Amino acid sequence: MKQLYTEIEINASAQKVWSVLTNFGDYPEWNPFIRYFEGQPEEGQQFKVTIQQPDSNAMTFQPVCLAYKENKEFRWSGHLLFKGLFDGEHIFKLEDLGNGKTKFIHKEKFKGILVPVLWKQLDTTTRKGFQLMNDELKYLAENLN
Question: 25: helix, coil or strand?
């Protein structure tokens, strides 16, 4: 198993960060990594998401929501073609730092037989996509009225 991990400190409350993060209809306008989101995540339910890594083609899949805890955490699990080939658990986590600040953790755990082959791309291109999304989320949450 491999893991990508990014985090960013946001000068906004967890509630503000969560409101931007879960306003899925606005993703095409601001989110450089998750370009489209369809459905309302509920634990155990599938939804549709389109991800586009920097300088790459978009990829649409239908993950299953593992956790959706308001102002705290959103996790999903998806796979390429079939389980065991290339599986990912995507995690967004918010930690209230006090004084109106929030740590946004954006990570993904990868497993499957293709992970070693794809790891270099994941560790560069996908990581860059995470960081671009984190930066935009920070900007929007800090400038939300």
Answer: helix
Q: Which pLDDT does position 69 carry in this prediction? A: 98
pTM of the model: 0.94
- Which amino acid is present at 14? A
Q: How many domains does the chain have?
A: 1
Can you give the pLDDT at residue 42?
95
CATH classification at residue 101:
3.30.530.20
Q: Which two tokens stand for residue 39?
A: 């459905």
What is the token pair recorded at 63? 């993950």
**Domain assignment of residue 27, given as a range:** 2-142
- Provide the pLDDT for residue 83: 85
Closest CA to 48 of 30, 57, 36: 36
Nearest partner of 68 among 47, 53, 87, judged by Cα: 47
* Separation of alpha carbons 63 and 116, rounded Å: 22
Which runs of consecutive H residues, i.e. helices, occur in 7-74? 14-21, 27-30
